[in-house]
Amino acid sequence: MKGRLALLLTVALLAVAGWWWQDRPVRPRVTTRLLMGTLVEISTWGVTEPVSRRAVGLAFDEMARIEDRMSRMRPDSELARINQAQRGELQPISAELAQVVARGLEMGRLSSGAFDIGLAPLSDLWGFSLEPPPTRPPPPERIADWLAQRARQNGNGIALGGTAENKIRLENAGVGLDLGGIAKGYAVEQAVGILRREGVHDALINAGGDMRILGSKGGKPWHVGLRDPRDPQGVAAILDLLGEVALSTSGDYERYFMADGVRHHHILDPKTGQSARAGLISVSVQAPDAMTADGLSTALFVLGEQAGLEMLRHFPGCEALLIRADGGHFQTPGFIGRWVKGP
Ligand code: ADP
Ligand code: MG
Known about the structure:
The protein is an alpha+beta fold. The protein folds into 3 domains: 27-72 and 179-217, Roll (T-fold); 86-170, T-fold; 221-343, T-fold. Helices cover 35% and strands 26% of the residues. It is built from 9 helices and 18 strands. The chain has helices at 2-21, 49-70, 78-84, 95-110, 120-126, 140-151, 183-197, 290-303, 305-312, and strands spanning 29-35, 38-44, 91-92, 158-160, 167-170, 203-207, 210-214, 222-228, 231-241, 245-251, 256-259, 262-265, 268-269, 274-275, 280-287, 319-324, 329-331, 338-339. The strands form 5 sheets. It has an 8-stranded antiparallel β-sheet with strand order 1-2-6-7-10-15-16-17. A 3-stranded antiparallel β-sheet has the order 3-5-4, covered by helices on one side. The chain has a 3-stranded antiparallel β-sheet with strand order 8-9-18, with no helix packed on it. It starts with a helix and ends with a strand. The relative contact order is 0.13. The protein binds adenosine-5'-diphosphate and magnesium ion (MG). Magnesium ion (MG) is lined by residues 181, 248, 250, 294-295, 297-298.
């Protein structure tokens, strides 16, 4: 009899505890969706399942909307329409796309042209966004033609706004818009805005190299690892991120092929028409927002260590971790990560 009572009491206690804990998550809720050519993962913490589900769904939808507008590979995107239009003529452009283009142009100026959102024709020549991915470099004379066309342009060949608001003009066939180095960051930042609006204040978005943190993981930092660029299973650095921070990594190991012992990858140097080879194999940038982090990691990769760190000085609150071709690394004093790979 006594045993029965104890059992009943235990069951009742468990029921109460279960009710008490039901809305208190013990681990993040993680959802993934294939977007922008990568697996995007959103983790939320501290909200009920229905709130998380709704917020994350809307955040993904927002990223899909931006991809529909800004993807170079979608023939019906607004960006593709501008790229297909007659060169030398003013074309209409939405305020949203113009805003991202303006940011890209600013990054271009501050990097002395190393970051170049007008290199779509060169990206087309290399074809890194195609399926299947390329296995040979394009013929050298095609690259030479492109470089010659660019040399004839006024600056980078993109004229935006000014006296013609909401208009854009691409100068000649050597220029076309490629926002691949910055649009993912913009999409992630917009997704963060949606999460917050929907009541999620603690989250982590990881869009294949572009990360953005919001708040904490139950009062503790979000713990993330940076890949070792030459070992898919290895970790080079770990970071404990808290609050409002973005982290973007650009490397030569995501989309690349080897030909005659040379590594060709998807970050291109507009000065040579070849894959960027400025001595770095991975660049991670920590910034207050994801678009800045995304653009800067690509720009610094192309610029290399010295010029890259000079560019970084124009961006308050931004820090970087650079991994050199010889495996060595450098991190700016404010970079949050801890190097774990050895010397
Ligand atoms: P990922 O897209 O793999 O995260 P990045 O953010 O570094 O990598 O961007 C690489 C993409 O940026 C390329 O696929 C291409 O679309 C574009 N790109 C390549 N070279 C440059 C460059 N010099 N300036 C601006 N964008 C570039
Ligand atoms: Mg980038």
